[in-house]
Amino acid sequence: MKSTTYNFFLIIALFALLPIISNAQLEDDPVLRAMKIELDRSKEGLRKDSLAKPFFISLLVTETNFQYNFSTSFGKKNEELTNTRIYRKGSPMILVGNYHRTQNFRGNSNSFSLPPSDDELSLRTAIWVNLDNAYKSAARNYVDKMAWLKQEKLSEEELALDDFEKRPATTLFREQKKENFNFEPIKKLSLQTSKLLTKKVNKERLLVENLRTGFRFSNELTRYYDTEGSMYMYPQQNGTFNIILSGVTEEGEDVSAYRSFRMNELSKFPTEKELEEAVNKIVEEYKLKYSTEKSDDPYMGPVLITNGRVESVVKQIINNLYTAPKTRFSNGNHYQNLTGVRVLSKQLSLTVHYGSKAQSISGVKRDLAPIDPQAVIPPDSITLIKNGILQNMLTSRQPVKKHLHSNGNARNGNMLEGVVTFSGIEQLEYDEIKKLLIDEAKLQGLEYAYIINTDDRLHLKVNVETGEEIPFLASINLGQTMKTMRRVLGVQKEYASSSDGTIRFPKSILLEDAEITIYKSNNRKKRNFVERPSL
Questions:
Q1: Are 108 and 91 in contact (CB under 8 A)?
Q2: Given pLDDT bands bounded at 50, 70 and 90, which one contains residue 201?
Q3: Rounded to whole angstroms, how far apart are CA atoms 388 and 322?
Q4: Which of 243, 486, 171 lies closest to 348 in space, CA to CA?
């Protein structure tokens, strides 16, 4: 009881502090101050003729204030660029009518550039001009929405749903630290990696056209304000290091191999040992691809999906779990009506962790947004699927039947701002799961069983009698993901993760039955008119 009382008064105290925190931030930040002034002013002033009045306006401003690039080509420095110019992009959202009935919208739209300076009048002018245009678009869409509602036969339950959830104001501020970055160790490792790759390519006498490494690092700052009083600001750092080898075979086919590393701080740049391992794998993969033929044979039977293919499947499952309201263009997402129903194999579960808990998970190399583009802070975790049963959806402030409240997952691009764990019950060693694959293929009377990776890597056909693995290249479609993942025989004990550490999954999953369709490339072979140069 004492704990409950303490927590209650703590919450009251924090809410009492919000205006003080907000006012201090507004005084210190001219961009945020300009956002607040113009949004509040526009909410009162955007009332033209008979057009619907705005009841909610928000503005999300993303700022990149530091960029560094360093690239190499064939073992030598190619380019080094440091850019401290400020780039700002504003994404407004204006809703007209009221919370119960507003226009159709898909999130922030009508993006525009803001001045790089902190001059308040310049910032306000840019916001003012673009809010006016956004309002006109919103008002037109509202008229279309109301006309559609008159024609569409909706149930009483559907008509009772609000179009936008009303929520109390949220305030969140995280300062961007001023840092002096030392890129010298990374430059040294980049050149060292490029020279090592060049040396190995020459030793193997590989024919390549492009051999390069590329490092990019940036500092970003996100600001937000809306007319409900919510405001937030948080920094992010983003870094990538890519190693790329590409060329054209004697027959004119494109061939490439690469590795990509992500980081949110310089200390997470790959080690010398990790880079050497990556170079060895790239060279070996390139050699195999150079001599491997493409296949267009269809297949139906057991399939072992591995590594990047599993990651791709997880991303597709997540993409299917965002709620979407019914509009004149779409009937929404049918999965949002299937809570409590089995949507995947009973082997599989999917959980997402958010916030500081997710950020502190070992191996995470991307700065996660602590709050979504509609000013909602997600919970510590959400179980979306448990033993194949759909438990929850990724929801925004657009209510749908069975999911009336946001859980902080309004979309902003294609990345989920959390750490996903995709797990299975029947966990096996790789040799065990491969034997299961072969046994199942034999039962189905097949000559080969398939091991499928991502399309930019090598796939394998396994002879069910001899166990011989035959590599092949192909662009593969496994069909409708949710349907394909309903029949799983087992998952590998060992786990892998995406390059940024935010998607964790078994290294391989055995599907009992899948139909493989091969996409045939429309790219014309690039036969060269002039012979390849030689030294």
A1: yes
A2: very high
A3: 17
A4: 486
DSSP letter at 266? G
Q: How does DSSP classify residue 394?
A: B
- Return the HEC string of 128-158: HHHHHHHHHHHHHHHHHHHHHHHHCCCCHHH
Tell me the torsion sign for CA atoms 152, 157, 160, 164.
negative
**Minimum mean pLDDT range among 394-398, 487-491, 515-519:** 515-519
pTM strictly above 0.85? yes
Please give the backbone phi and psi of residue 477, each rounded to the nearest 5 degrees, phi first: -115, 125
d(CA 441, CA 448): 7
State whether residue 17 is helix, strand or coil: helix
Band (pLDDT 50/70/90 cuts) for residue 532 is low
| Chain centroid offset of residue 322 CA | 13
What's the CA gap between 463 and 449, in Å, rounded? 7
**Residue 294, beta-bridge partner list:** 473
Helices (H), strands (E): how many in the chain? 10, 22
Calculate ∠ Cα 181-182-183, nearest 5°.
110
Handedness of CA 35, 38, 42, 43 (dihedral sign): positive
From edge to edge, which strands make up the β-sheet containing 419-424?
Answer: 389-390, 381-386, 348-353, 419-424, 503-506, 495-497
What distance in Å separates the CA atoms of residue 460 and residue 190, rounded to the nearest whole number?
Answer: 32
Signed CA dihedral, 351, 357, 362, 368: sign only: positive
- Are the beta carbons of 130 and 110 closer than 8 angstroms? yes
Residue 87 tokens read as 């780039």
322 and 394 in contact (C-beta within 8 Å)?
yes
What residue has token string 């299937």? Answer: 338
Residues 425, 389: Cα–Cα separation, whole Å: 13
How far, in whole angstroms, is CA 495 from its chain's centroid? 20
Q: What is the DSSP string of 149-208?
A: HHHS---HHHHHS-SS------EEE-PPPP-----HHHHHHHHHHHHHHHHHHHHTT---
pLDDT of residue 456: 80
Residue, of 384 and 513, whose pLDDT is higher: 384
Of 98, 108, 107, the closest CA to residue 146 belongs to 98
